[in-house]
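FORM 12-B: Structure-to-Sequence Request
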């Protein structure tokens, strides 16, 4: 780290409260600035005041520019995703399913077939948008489908009544999803 500061010559008439200026070899913060007549400015410090001509130039300390926040990299962290928009080399990989193989790579699948790997640090590979996927046991999906068909969805119900029937039918599926056993 260096002790270098950047200064900008500024007319006394343009000084404002809170600015830092170099004054007698020190960096000091201005508490208050007031006009004193038409040609002078009074600067108030913590330990006193100083009067300058309005056209006098003072060295204002320019605050250091903060380092910009690093741009969030577009790279998923979920174990299973469907890529909505992305490319591998110059090939579109939108619609492919990907399994995370490490924090730097995903294994791609297209239509159930192996489609290679995509690497985070490769300049030609990018996953721009994706959606998280969850694995659900096939039997749980079949049970839900069967219970929904038993509801007689064709019968007219209010939205709330229909939702209540779906929730009732799906309650037992928590056990199916957790244990893999049928809830019946």
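FORM 12-B RESPONSE
SEQUENCE OUT:
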């Amino acid at each position: 780290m260096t002790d270098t500061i950047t200064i900008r010559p500024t007319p006394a008439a343009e000084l404002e409260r809170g600015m830092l200026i170099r004054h007698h070899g020190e960096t000091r913060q201005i508490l208050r600035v007031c006009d004193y007549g038409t040609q002078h400015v009074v600067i108030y410090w913590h330990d006193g005041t100083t009067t300058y001509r309005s056209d006098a130039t003072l060295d204002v300390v320019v605050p250091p520019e903060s380092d910009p926040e690093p741009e969030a990299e577009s790279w998923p962290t979920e174990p299973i995703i469907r890529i909505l928009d992305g490319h591998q080399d110059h090939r579109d990989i939108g619609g492919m399913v990907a399994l995370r193989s490490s924090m730097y790579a995903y294994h791609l699948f297209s239509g159930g077939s192996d489609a290679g790997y995509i690497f985070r640090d490769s300049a030609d590979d990018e996953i721009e948008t994706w959606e998280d996927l969850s694995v659900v046991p096939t039997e749980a999906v079949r049970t839900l489908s069967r219970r929904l068909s038993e509801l007689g969805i064709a019968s007219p119900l209010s939205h709330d009544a229909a939702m209540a029937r779906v929730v009732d039918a799906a309650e037992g599926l928590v056990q199916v999803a957790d244990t893999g056993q049928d809830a019946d």
